[in-house]
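worker-03 picked up job from queue 'complexes'. Input manifest follows; two sequence lines, order preserved.
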Amino acid sequence: MDRRNFIKIAGAASIASLALKDIIGKSIPTANASDLTSTKYENYKIGQRVPTICPYCAGGCGLIVTTLQGKIIEVEGDPNHPINQGATCSKAAAALQLYTSDRRILYPMKRTNPLKGKDEDPQWQQISWDEAYSTISNKVKDALTGVPYKHGSNYYYNGKDNPISWLGSSYWNNEECYLARKLISLLGSNNVEHQARKCHASTVAALGSTFGFGAMTNHVIDAKNSKCFLIMSNPAESHTMEFKWVQEAVDNGATVIVLDPRFTRTAAKAHIYSRYRSGSEAAIFLCIIRYVIYEKHERLDETFLVTRTNAHYKTDGEGPLADWMTNTESIFGKLKALVNRYTPDEVERISGIPKAKFLLVADTFSGNKPSNIYYSMGTTQHSNATQAIRAHAILQLLLGNMGKPGGGVNALRGISNVQGSTDMNLLSHLLMGYRAPPVTMEELKRYQMWKNTDPEKRGGVTNGTTYPWASLSEAETLSKVIEYRTDARLFPTWNSLEYHWGVYVGTWPGIDPDNEPVVCDLPVVKGNPIVQLFRAIGDGKIKVLLCNGENPAVSVANVNMVRDALSSEHLFTVVNEIFETETAIYADILLPGTVQIERSGSITNTGRWIQWRWKAVEPLGEECKPELAYLTELYQNIRSTLKAANIKLPSEKYEDENSVQIKRTVGTKELENNPETTWPSSFLPLTLGTDTVDAEAIAEAVYMETAAKSIIVGGVNLPQAAANVLYKTGYDPDNYPEVGGNLSKRRDITPADSDDEKYGYYKNWAFSWMLNQRVLYNPDETNPGLSSFFVWFAMDSDTWLGIDKAAIWSKKLYNPTKPITNPFYHAMPLHSEPVESPDPALAAEYPTMWDDRFPVEKGSSADYPYVLTTNRLTEHMQAGSMTRNLPWLVELHPEMFVEISSELASIIGVTDGSYVMVKTARKPAGIRVIASITDRMKPVTVNGKTVHQAAMPWHWGFKGLSTGPSANELTMDAVDVSAQIPETKTCLCNIQKA
Amino acid sequence: MADGTAGIDSEKRKLSGYVYSTDRAILNGAKVTCDEFETLTLADGYYTFDELPTGMLEVSVNLKGYQSKSKKVTIKDNEHTIQNFILNKAQGTSSIKGNIRDSETNEPILNKGTVILILPISNKYKPIDANGYYEFDNLPAGTYTLSTSIPEYDDSDIVLTLLDGESKLHDFLCKKNREVEPAWG
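worker-03 finished. Artifact:
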């Protein structure tokens, strides 16, 4: 593709169909060495085709890379891929430039300018990988010196106090994310975060506490089965290929409703559109719920509510109630009472959606089943986002739209592997597969008893105290159902990690756990989530930041605070990147990463499809190191340095200080508490300085570790073979020898059965968690995996309802000590105003959920009268680290801007294309940007007053081919208190002529 | 890592060196001053000055938590002088100690969590003991930030200034955190 063709394709509604017919899987190269000298077309015809998955959004589109003699000839859409069927958006169409860019970082470098700051040139100096590893290892060692491993008589590292932190990355493959979590855990730290915290943390918290899993419930292609869409997002621009399936549904008669503060390209395709005030999402959905309950009672799916939710019980678990529909004490009755205030008039007052338009929205959505909710950052980045998304989920439960093709609550995740990186838990409060790290000594003692109960399989002692509630019935007898259920989720994963990570977890010697010291090599206690992590860096608690494929100097709300923290003179920062990003400017060491087609591995798309992408070419520069090789060597070097300084695992310290040897036995095999025996993988341990580090082999081995269906150790089948419970059975060599057991490599579009053909499950293509189920909670799906909800709506021992009741009332979000205006008081959602509300009266009436747990700069509507929201563009990706370095994309969108209405422009006194200063309390001096005066923006009427809104893309920063001020210099760093996601999407601003 | 003169090179009147501690910690962010010039050590402990005035100059290194050190160096035209430093950890006679209590109940928080004393290279940590007590001793005079890190409690920070030989008592009253955070998935 050349520039002219690129522009043509990018301009054609971002969707281009490339006519390729004959590519199935990996083809065999037919070229000779001399062939590369012929024309590009000739090279293309004889080149090798290698399938890969797009590195940008989470749609999971297939691309085909054509190479010849190690050179990339072309990158284009994969015509055999079921999601994009050969089409691409403009970013993927320009992917060739990403791989061949002369702006790539090609070798390790260290800064020689001791001053750090946005305007400081790092004055890079090339170094060797050995020097980089040596410096990093020594700085890790220095930081860990004196960190306590002994607390009273117990031996463990506190995961929050640990001064080593890790960031990233959703652009990395699953195996890389897994190994990163393994690495930072082995250093005793839970100070690990990545992009997922900033995009869909609230989705995971809301859907997890309602349904059981926090992911998109259906999948990309399933949109074709919907009869109606309520879209709170802009997929035509940010998830272009996913939107293709919405359009297919429209071709079959579906209706599209779009609600968005801006009139977007998605809105342009809608049958019904309304703008609204950013921050009122919960109120809008509560009003639709009210509409269904009070106005369209017949649309409630009573059978579904009774069989699959807790609507017909009381909040204390009493029930089921025969009169639940009318009983004010039932959960349904409480919901009905709670939503009563959200009348169409009230929601017009809060959101600005005119009553008549709202009624049309509510009637259309509830009257056309199966109906589907699409949403993304416009909903997730608010201080009450978890509540708003809970309202999405409750609406779908009321309508019976869950567990069915065409229905669902469908979070459009943003980055190619953000679902996978979340599943691998590069997060401060989770360890692996959404299983939490140990928090209390009591649960670790219980874990030892659990191991003892089945010592052969679990590696415990043979005659010690055993787990007191080994079955649900025993737990019920002892009123320990909460513990039983919690333990049943956590312990198999800890046990699996003991094996795969070469660590010890429990008490020692394990005979009498209640009276023995805890010895735990997993980091105990959750770490700092993203905003608090940078506050901890700024405070000096964190000494080392290992930042990988992530650009927090642009992407985090109130980035001023982040940049100050990164400038701390005693912070040691390592950045692994492909381009010199804004964050890299603050690094002490900058390492050259690789792009996705230079290495192999699996990634998980927004619809939970786990797909393999094959390596197509060698890394661009000789020093560009595949991430799995980097991770492997990094830990080997750190471990060696730490051991020399006598900084070891808690179990090793226990052994040294007590002259014992801690062992555990599985079957006939004795296992060491030594991560060197399982690094980088229990399937492929490698010794520093002896074994060759082959990233391709490591990718295969780590995939097996995360997804194994079964592992025989010492003659015993481990109770949970896969390190990540969500991915189990994804490696199954007995049943899938044609792909070497790696189900993510499957590329068979043949339907598995008639339902597969009808609904487009594509169950022979790749793999999806869990157990290859394509629509979560769908009891009608062949081989359904998870056919039922499995949330605990009430965890008290006497109110356990079983595993298939979705939580309209969720005890996990219940705190009766909160004020009655707070959703936690009800364990059901309410509307709460943003931290910065444009209307003081509404702010008093619907108080913000933000609890001032840490100080943030807040502005008033008197000083900052307009609402500022942020958005994405088709041509750029997130913090712009990749796309602002690519000439074709920069040419399409070269400069930062703010979109405002003509009405607001008149007030400010500016014309289209002139510069304005946009100011918030985080940056009172403001940032200078071009004003785009457009009918896409219009004021809304909120509580009887005109409220003007402005919108800014958040892709820009001060490095790259295209530079500009960052929207996150203005945004709010208060967070949703359930999910710790910053309120990036709504704040108050002022705009003045520059 | 020898001190002395490296010889003639293209960089005029240059002074550089590495700064480490006696236990071989790399001391990055240490302030190095020479004549009226000032710089900071890099991540590998390296510092450098270019185009210094010729003659005998005093170069000194300061880093909180370590004993400052000064040395005389002679800067000559067309010579690159190397001066490394190995700093001793600062020792003093001051101390900070106190109890950790729940702000609502005033009950001591026992055997749980840590008090962190923030220092440039390696923080100091004191696990809260069975009596809910912590103590940092042998501190030199100076201003210190302390922070608690206790499961189920919000962090609590304090900045204290100690004089030589002073023993300061500071009790932390910690608030239970207010989180209502569901498990994910």
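worker-03 released lock.
The two ends of chain B are 54 Å apart (CA to CA).
Residues 6-10 of chain B have pLDDT under 50 and may be disordered.
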